[in-house]
Design a protein that fits this description.
This protein is an alpha/beta fold. It is built from 10 helices and 6 strands. The radius of gyration is 22 Å and the shape is globular. The mean pLDDT is about 90.
């Protein structure tokens, strides 16, 4: 071999290796996920779903099967770590995975690709948050939270609140759905109430409907009127999207009747129609 050709051959080999790595990485991941979806769903997990996540029983057969497949991939890829002395059990893991995968049933957006781990606390956890005071002074304020989603790849949850939200699938309150709606919103790097959409036209429609509904909620609250959408949704557009998502999956009939434009927008986004579920 001509020694002068060696650097060229090494460069070509390196380039081919990079191409193979980039092509093979995602392909291998998809194959691994498909293998997980094809595995039998553990009988013990079926019992957990029936006992702890009654919302799952509403799903039609095809979506019920898809959810179980998604649960297997989710739990293989997303570690759930106990905090505050909590030992994580299969009951906790399966319950959280089932609710986290509900927003993925219609549109295939990947399994929250930026999410690295879930931190699970026994109950509400305390965080320090900066609060602006009069005169522009910023102070730290301690708050007890049931859940929180970070764009940096973490979701924090209170197990007691996860249980409460899962136990009553008709109260419109579900901390797991709420925080994973934030994860969808944060997929672009920050949460602003507008998750990644397919086109400029879709963004224009989203902005119009969401802004009208958000403004309507704030106006009703200013008049002291109660309504379907929780007051926490008036915090900002990101919280409005997450609160509305809870209602979409848990109280679809009420949302469709009282806020049809909002329901239609969310149905188009999630690509499911919970009105057709049992």
């Amino acid at each position: 071999m001509d020694i002068n050709t060696l650097p060229l051959l090494l460069t070509v080999a390196f380039g081919l290796g990079l191409i193979a790595w980039f092509a093979g990485g995602p392909l291998l991941k998809r194959r691994r996920q498909q293998q997980l979806r094809e595995q039998p769903f553990p009988q013990a997990w079926r019992r957990i779903l029936r006992r702890r996540v009654p919302l799952v029983q509403r799903l039609p057969a095809d979506l019920h099967l898809r959810l179980k497949q998604d649960i297997q991939v989710f739990l293989a890829e997303k570690p759930i770590l106990g905090c505050g002395g909590l030992t994580v059990t299969d009951e906790m893991r399966v319950s959280i995975a089932a609710l986290a995968c509900l927003p993925l049933l219609g549109a295939r957006r990947g399994y929250y690709p930026k999410l690295k781990q879930i931190l699970l606390y026994p109950g509400a956890f305390v965080v320090d948050r900066p609060v602006n005071q009069a005169g522009g002074v910023q102070m730290e304020q301690r708050r007890a939270l049931a859940g929180e989603s970070w764009a940096q790849g973490q979701v924090l949850l209170s197990w007691s609140d996860v249980q409460a939200g899962a136990a009553d699938p008709g109260d419109g309150r579900n901390v797991v759905i709420h925080e994973f709606a934030h994860q969808l919103d944060q997929a672009k790097g920050h949460a602003n109430g507008a998750p990644q959409l397919a086109s400029k036209r879709a963004y224009r429609l989203w902005s119009t409907v969401m802004q009208n509904e958000f403004d309507g909620l704030r106006e009703r609250l200013a008049r002291g009127e109660a309504g379907l959408i929780d007051a926490y949704g008036a915090t900002d557009p990101a919280e409005f999207f997450a609160v509305s998502s809870e209602l979409f999956f848990e109280r679809p009939l009420d949302l469709a009747q009282q806020h049809p434009a909002l329901y239609g927008l969310l149905s188009d986004y999630y690509r499911v129609n919970p009105l057709n579920w049992n």
